[in-house]
Design goal:
Blueprint (H helix, E strand, L loop, with lengths): L1 E4 L4 H12 L5 E4 L7 H6 L7 E3 L5 E2 L2 H11 L10 H30 L6 H20 L9 H16 L7 H11 L2 H4 L6
Parallel strand pairs: 1-2
Antiparallel strand pairs: 1-3, 3-4
Helix pairs in contact: 1-3, 1-6, 4-5, 4-6
Length: 194
């Protein structure tokens, strides 16, 4: 299988961590989203990453669907529980983390596109949302003790914020949790890079 991704994508990071934990080999193809390859556009007309291309050529997108697909391939290190209540809780955390990723990306892109005259109310609101998300995560941190898709997604979101918006790094108990989870080999190997 081929994974079309970028080294900076927090969404692709979730997929790569799942694959590493489940010992699933992926042929990683780093895409340039400024000059989208025909391969990416053929697989995903929106040109978004991550996009997984199965061995039979079938494309799979986006990250929540890819993570569920990979988790179902074997029972080594189950990342999404099979029991409905536990499953819903993990998928809820993944959705929350994905929204945190989107918020961070929107904030970063606003500052990149308009470095001198970015929309101050918009950026202040996005920063407030990120800090609110941190408070929510810290309040329910006990729900992220198990290493599964929930904790992977949250750590990937925080890792992206640290990478792109270092002035918004986590503090206190949440910082300690993030430091510990970041030591796990699959998380350390997938840290975002420029």
């Amino acid at each position: 299988m081929k994974l079309l991704y970028t080294k900076r994508s927090p969404y692709a990071r979730k997929v790569k961590v799942i694959a590493l934990e489940k010992n699933i080999a992926l042929d990683l193809i780093d895409e340039d989203l400024q000059k989208k390859s025909q391969r990416l556009l053929d697989a995903n007309p929106l040109g978004k990453v991550p996009t997984l291309i199965l061995d039979n050529g079938t494309p799979v997108f986006d990250s929540p669907v890819i993570c569920q697909y990979l988790d179902g391939l074997n029972d080594k290190a189950v990342m999404i529980p099979r029991e409905p209540g536990e499953r819903m809780e993990v998928l809820k955390w993944e959705a929350f983390a994905d929204d945190l990723m989107t918020t961070a990306i929107n904030l970063y892109m606003e500052k990149v596109r308009h470095p001198q005259d970015f929309h101050q109310d918009f950026t202040a609101n996005m920063e407030k949302n990120i800090l609110s998300a941190y408070a929510y995560i810290e309040k329910d941190l006990s729900k992220l003790k198990k290493f599964d898709l929930a904790s992977i997604a949250v750590a990937s979101a925080i890792g992206y914020v640290h990478f792109r918006l270092p002035h918004l790094k986590v503090q206190g108990v949440l910082a300690k949790w993030f430091e510990e989870i970041s030591k796990r080999p699959s998380m350390a190997q997938t840290m975002p890079v420029a």
